Amino acid sequence: MSKKNILLLSFIMILFVSCEKKTEKAVKTVNVLPARKYQIRVGYMPDFSGTSAVAIAKEKGFFDEEHLDVTLIKFLDGPSEVEEMLLKNLEFAYIGHGAHSLAIEGKVNVLFPNALSRAEQIIVRNAANIESVKDLRGKKVGTQIGTSSEILLYLALQSLGIKTNELDIINMNGNTIVSSMISNTIDAASVQAPYSFEILNSLGDKVKSIATTVDYSDVGSFPSSWIVTPSFQNNNADIVNRFSRAILKAMDYRQLNMSEAVELVADMNGKTVEEVDLERETGLWLSGDDVKKAYTNGEVSKWYKTQQNIFIYTKTITNNININNYVQIKYMLDNVFNE
Which of 7, 191, 251, 282 has the fewest CB atoms lying closer than 10 Å? Predict the structure, then answer.
């Protein structure tokens, strides 16, 4: 065989081997499968607080980015959600203030807060000459005993050293409080949404709000939260992290795009934009960055500690429980906020 033929044959062999390697590489690339989607069921409630984050996460693709295939299930109360979670019919859920007693009992873990409630307000009639909480002495004040509204009144009075017998506190339900304010039979009301909205809308400049729950968050907080069962968290840390990232990103988006969030909630819950716009006034809406900061500087412990104090005051629970037993501070710092 001539030198020329040997060189030609060598070139062909090199070209063949090179093409074969490229083909193998291409085949390997084609065969790389996308990450699987994890199917989860998430409980939500049909108001701005309980819907906004999941509505945004679904609409803006934040769940998809985390490879989560999410089924949203509507609930009207937290205990029902917790029951379904314990039956393994639900992986994650949103809860308002009341259901946190079940977290304190160890049935579920709190991943992170969604908002701090300001749904409760102390509203006064201008004609009653009440400018601040200290002026409630000797006045007729309507509230519903055993509710978060009574707690707000208690915290407000306690902060100034005012005893409850220094004013005339009248126990009445929300509808009666509204009618009593309109008929001028009480001077003030400590009341929660939607009754607070009814009073403010009906009486306009004849009334004003002198306090909300947020004003007393250092001694009494009403956080809403996202929860998971301890067993699911222990066995599915990757899914918990993915869900947390998606919701926290949605909370960031919510804070910067509140009007759009209102529209998404209205559409999802079959309400008018005007109705939902009122609902958004009921909370101090946290962003993902707010939550990260609160977990880092320890402020979140204060929120849940003062919430526990409220449960003890109402005799819902009898003993203080270590916040770290159920609020996942270390977990979030180690697994979500350190990324």
Answer: 7
Which helix H or strand E contains 70, and what residues bound it? Answer: strand 68-74
Beta bridge partners of 71: 41
Alpha helices in the chain (DSSP H): 3-30, 48-59, 62-65, 78-86, 100-104, 148-159, 174-182, 195-203, 230-235, 237-256, 258-269, 273-279, 288-297, 299-313, 329-335
Decide: residue 115, CB within 10 A, 0-12 exposed, 13-18 middle, 19+ buried.
buried
Residue with tokens 């697994």: 335
8 Å CB contact between 306 and 116: no
Tell me the pLDDT tens digit for each residue of 307-339.
998 898 888 899 899 999 999 999 999 999 986
d(CA 165, CA 232) in angstroms, rounded, equals: 48
By DSSP bridging, strand 92-95 and strand 68-74 are unpaired
Q: Per residue in 225-274, pLDDT tens?
A: 999 999 999 999 999 999 999 999 999 999 999 999 999 999 999 999 99
pTM check: above 0.70: yes
Cβ contact 196:213 at 8 Å: no
Cross-strand pairs, 192: 120
Distance in angstroms between the alpha carbons of the first and the last residue of the chain: 64
